[in-house]
Write a structure and sequence with these properties.
heterodimer; A: about 110 residues; mainly beta; 5-stranded mixed beta sheet; 4-stranded antiparallel beta sheet; about 0% helix; B: about 110 residues
Chain lengths: ~110, ~110
Amino acid sequence: DAKTTQPPSMDCAEGRAANLPCNHSTISGNEYVYWYRQIHSQGPQYIIHGLKNNETNEMASLIITEDRKSSTLILPHATLRDTAVYYCIVRAGGTSYGKLTFGQGTILTVHP
Amino acid sequence: DVKVTQSSRYLVKRTGEKVFLECVQDMDHENMFWYRQDPGLGLRLIYFSYDVKMKEKGDIPEGYSVSREKKERFSLILESASTNQTSMYLCASSSLGGGSGYTFGSGTRLTVV
């Protein structure tokens, strides 16, 4: 499985964009990048995923570099409720198709 | 609203007891997963299932077993609970290709005393 590297923590002011980076330099051609977040004492929540094109939904945007070795999750207007641990995950293929392997994630703190 | 439901939010069991953690999803998903989450260790995959009566070991299956008799239900079994199995247990489900993302339950915090 491709490994991911994220900064352990980030801060963001409320109302500003939060840009969360992720490195996945060993990603293979058929692996997707997924983003989840986990608010304290709750199960992880799916945010967005992509293969090689940029993606946008009602929660966030995902920017994947052309070489696919890194990506950035963008929360365009962060709110206090976006304070959470954000996980960047590369989905495994082959016999473990569909399995998600979680790293340590980034603790995002949104300040008033 | 689609969801994954875990039967208990909090559970306290004694060492040596047999423990059943139940998970039900209403999305007709093929895949179901059991993770445990511990401080400093993150989420670790225990077992997963791609279909009824099928199961595969995850990264830390020792001390656990699973059962999937119906598509919507995936049970995690601790045959003889031990204190090192005190943890937050999270169930998840996804469609076969995972394209719609994975939906997690709210978790069961199990304490073994």
